[in-house]
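Protein Record: Sequence and Backbone Structure Tokens
======================================================
Tokens: labelled as protein backbone structure tokens, with as many entries as the chain has residues.
Question of interest: how does this chain fold, as expressed in backbone structure tokens?

___
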Amino acid sequence: SWGLNTTGLRDIAYPLPLGIDAASLTDMYNLCDPARKKNGYMVVHDSAGSVGINNSSYTFSGKVIFLLQRGLNINGNFFDMTSDSRILIIATGGAVINSFGGYHSRSFNGLVYLRDSAFMQMQVYGTYSINGAIHLADARCKWQMNNSTYHLPSLVKFNFNASMLRDFVSMGIITIPTPGGATPSATQNPLVLTDFKIRPELLSVSY
């Protein structure tokens, strides 16, 4: 089964302000003391409260691990990422990730890991790609898809990509259920979700 080990991460984590965007997070990453990075990753936490993500046309460039116990208020404003950027979001306890997703043609590279009773809601504007994985570790975790009022249909492309998880596995933070922790047994083909309503039931899945 999947596993999680965050030992020592909290000790090197920086507190997040209550509002960030791609530019301010990139600045935090570039100014972060290398001694407080974990294999090149800046670690941040939400001790001040739920963190708001502000919309920005800036493309995030960096590597970050989010330790969430309260949550993120994204409102469909998650920023675009460069191809070599990575983000690991670890939501535990009762953390809530509100309206995860972004605007048309943006993408997320990395892993969202929900544990305990963490809840994640998605909202996108047009076509949004997730390159990596979303994992719900416990039965109490919940995941919900919401439509937006954007002029293009809401469409989420899940592109499972084991290479996006490789850093997290090699650091010992994440374990995945295959010998050597290389490629999980799930299919590598993209999963596309369309036509979703404001309720937990998924109405349409196409491969």
Observations:
- Residues 179-187, 194-207 have pLDDT under 50 and may be disordered.
